[in-house]
Design goal:
Length: about 375
């Protein structure tokens, strides 16, 4: 048995080679110990960048709390990670235990944060804290957010490639080994798309149809506290030049990175790919899918599996028809207009067979030393 400290989130993992580490984090309320969220290797986000990013605090009034990040996709809807809605592997925070704010300045984690209240929490029905697949949730706010406070961001509903530029954001320290190096402002970091072979090595539960992983560049990563936060990419749309491609989900623990260190060489961050869930989001939040999404008119590049891919408006219809016949690797970077309703009902159901021997148990005490048991 190997005992590993992993930045203050309690996890107990049982697996053959690796486990997953959620990227939410703890706060301090009274005598409850705080841990600081972080982006590694980033720079301060510009005043006009990531303006739809939400700061989220969860606190149940006793000893359970956490910090996550999200994105405003409609005036009263925040998109975040599914695991941000959980206290432990089975218990969930109630809507009244969330507070949401929109700021580029890090709120004091030692003080009870007061922002916008949440009326309803909707977690994806297939999400489980045991494997962090389908890691996506919606927070329905009690009040609509004025555009002067935070504009909405659209979901990117197109293809992505190894060359696709990625940029993520969050609050926190610049050194994963030094909790005192805490900036006071939102940080952003440029990331690269990882190949499916790397993603599979770094996560037992990697599901290419619904997840994106990064390329393992040393010194650049998101980390604890950034869960649910934006992973954006440029578009060729004049009105929406940046769109939401993914959201921060988890990191990995394996033989090359046994302590689960963020930004370690070869260690990937994993992100929920949002496009496959677009129909589910629209239905649950009573939104029009077309009005909250955007895609590039033309795009091409190298797929995650290494093959060359091209697409255009004229080809999109045939691509949609052919995608369903491809295997996971071939479609991992070429999902266009995937119906989350089909996905939920099983047509595009995620393949978690590689994680059959993997058991991920996330315990209740955010902010206590984490344990990973590798058998």
């Amino acid at each position: 048995m190997q005992i590993v400290s992993v930045f203050g989130f309690v996890t107990l993992g049982l697996c053959a080679a690796s486990t997953v580490v959620p990227r939410n984090n703890a706060i301090r309320k009274g005598n409850f110990e705080a841990q600081i969220p972080r982006v590694i290797g980033g720079k301060p986000a510009g005043a006009n960048e990531f303006t739809s990013t939400a700061y989220i605090e969860m606190y149940d009034g006793t000893s359970n709390g956490g910090i996550c990040t999200g994105s405003l996709i409609a005036p009263n809807v925040v998109l975040t990670a599914g695991h941000c809605t959980y206290i432990d592997e089975t218990s969930k925070f109630t809507a009244s235990e969330f507070q949401v704010g929109f700021t580029h300045t890090m709120p004091d984690p030692m003080v009870l944060f007061k922002g916008y209240s949440v009326s309803k929490v909707i977690t994806h029905p297939k999400f489980s804290m045991y494997d962090l697949v389908d890691d996506i949730a919606l927070l329905i706010l009690k009040d609509s957010i004025p555009s002067s406070v935070a504009p909405t961001i659209k979901i990117y509903d197109g293809e992505f490639y190894l060359e696709t530029p990625l940029r993520a954001a969050g609050f926190g320290v610049t050194d994963p080994l030094n909790d005192t190096s805490v900036p006071t402002e939102l940080m952003a970091v440029d990331l690269g798309v990882g190949k499916s072979s790397l993603c599979s090595r770094n996560s037992d539960t990697y599901t290419p149809k619904t997840q994106i992983c990064t390329d393992g560049t040393e010194g650049k990563d998101t980390c604890q506290g950034d869960s649910g936060g934006p992973l954006v990419t440029p578009t060729d749309d004049k009105e929406d030049s940046i769109a939401l491609l993914g959201l921060t989900s988890y990191g990995t623990v394996n033989s090359r990175n046994p302590s689960g260190l963020c930004a370690a060489k070869g260690a990937s961050g994993f992100y929920t790919y949002i496009a496959p869930y677009l129909s589910w989001i629209a239905e649950e939040a009573n939104l029009d899918a077309k009005s909250i999404s955007v895609t590039n008119r033309t795009s091409s590049g190298t797929s995650v599996d290494g093959s060359s891919s091209d697409s255009s408006d004229e080809e999109s219809e045939s691509d949609d028809e052919s995608d369903s016949d491809d295997d996971d690797d071939n479609t991992s970077s070429r999902i266009t207009n995937v119906s989350a309703n089909d996905y939920i009902e099983g047509e595009g159901e995620s393949d978690t067979s590689s994680g059959a021997a993997h058991i991920q148990i996330s315990l209740t005490a955010f902010g206590v030393a984490a344990m990973s048991m590798l058998l």
